[in-house]
Specification:
The complex is a heterodimer. In chain A, 79% of the residues lie in helices and 4% in strands. Chain A is built from 4 helices and 2 strands. Chain A has helices at 3-26, 34-57, 68-83, 86-104; strands at residues 58-59, 62-63. In chain A, strands 1-2 form a two-stranded antiparallel ribbon. The chains are: A mainly alpha, B mainly alpha. Chains A and B meet through helix 1, helix 2, helix 3 and helix 4 of A and helix 2, helix 3, helix 4, helix 5 and helix 6 of B.
Chain lengths: 105, 238
């Protein structure tokens, strides 16, 4: 990404933080309807899944040949469900990724 | 000029800070991962430092990184961050009644500092103790603790990333951290269905230009979640 776009992105991301967190505190009378509020509850998880899913499957634009990242994601998910500990989750995922990478190459 | 209106206000700030301390290590670790991920996705030192200090939103930053790295349009980067941040709109709506009397600058400032953990801790105390005195200071104490440990962790990650070889694939840790945020959300059935749908559509539509697969996946996920949620509610009522 060009330098200019990068700085523009950082300004835009700062705006995204302020708008999402402070917007409803600043515009005190604004109220989303019940339907929109339900959509708001679901949107963040769906956006995260739409980012994480392809990130785990693809590498440099193509399906990752040995699915290292997918296995790492599976190990991390299992670990999180069992321990509820973010630290252990990252460790398990990275351990799986590294073990497979060293074993397969 | 005294910073705090009273000793009691200062004490509530301290209590808010202390109540967040058990989570501080986790906040710092999360910041560390974000700091490393920023550097490993090719951001320079200065943009990474400015990003952590200004944006101050781990999940939005981690979500934006692959898009920035692949040269996606700025509008898509910002839109993605906005959608990931939508949970904060819910938090802000819940905090609204408590922030009503504050002036505009404070509402902006307090809102900017809303975080996942701080919100949960504040609301827990708010529900237990009602409209307790100096609750704004209590809120700010927790926010200050979160901010401090986040920034220390993140800056450490930015510096440490220089010594981590690229082929360790540590940017994957950023993706795994997002997974750690996503999985607990999936305890609700509509969210689980929506997330699976969103991931499937995003993977299938990965070839679309400008990462439109991300947009398509998110919209499909929300539609699925709302459909499942509506059926689910009807089912439990019957």
């Amino acid at each position: 990404m060009p330098e200019f776009d990068l700085w523009l992105s950082i300004i835009g991301l700062t705006f995204a933080t302020i708008a999402a967190r402070a917007g409803m505190l600043v515009f005190r009378r604004m109220s989303p309807g019940a339907t929109v509020e339900r959509a708001l509850r679901y949107a963040p998880a769906c956006a995260l899944a739409a980012i994480v899913g392809p990130e785990l499957v693809f590498s440099h634009g193509a399906v990752e040949p040995d699915h290292l990242k997918l296995w790492a994601g599976a190990a991390a998910t299992l670990c999180f469900v069992l321990t509820r500990n973010l630290f252990a989750t990252l460790a398990a995922g990275m351990a799986m990724f590294t073990a497979l990478r060293l074993w397969l190459t | 000029m005294k910073f705090w209106s009273s000793e009691a206000a200062a004490a509530q700030f301290g209590r808010g800070f202390a109540d967040l301390m058990p989570a501080a290590a986790g906040v710092a670790a999360w910041g560390l991962v974000t700091g490393v991920a920023m550097m490993q996705s090719g951001l320079g030192m200065l943009p990474a430092v400015v990003m952590t200090l200004l944006v101050y939103a781990g999940s939005a930053q981690l979500a934006a990184l692959p898009l920035i790295a692949s040269g996606s349009p700025v509008s898509l980067v910002v839109l993605t961050a906005l959608v990931v941040n939508l949970r904060f709109v819910i938090y802000a709506l819940a905090l609204r009644r408590d922030m009503e009397g504050l002036n505009l600058a404070r509402r902006l400032w307090y809102g900017y500092l809303i975080g996942d953990i701080g919100f949960v801790i504040y609301m827990t105390r708010r529900e237990r103790d009602g409209e307790f005195a100096h609750r704004h200071e209590y809120y700010l104490g927790g926010a200050a603790c979160n901010w401090l440990f986040w920034q220390v962790g993140s800056l450490m990650g930015i510096v440490a990333a220089n010594w981590v070889p690229l082929d360790w694939g540590l940017e994957l840790a950023g993706t795994l951290a997002l997974l750690g945020l996503l999985v607990p959300m999936c305890a609700q059935r509509p969210v689980l269905a929506g997330s699976l749908g969103a991931a499937a559509v995003a993977i299938a539509a990965h070839g679309l230009p400008m990462r439109l697969g991300l947009v398509a996946g998110t919209i499909a996920g929300v539609v699925i979640a709302m459909a499942v949620g509506a059926n689910f509610n009807r089912g439990t009522r019957a």
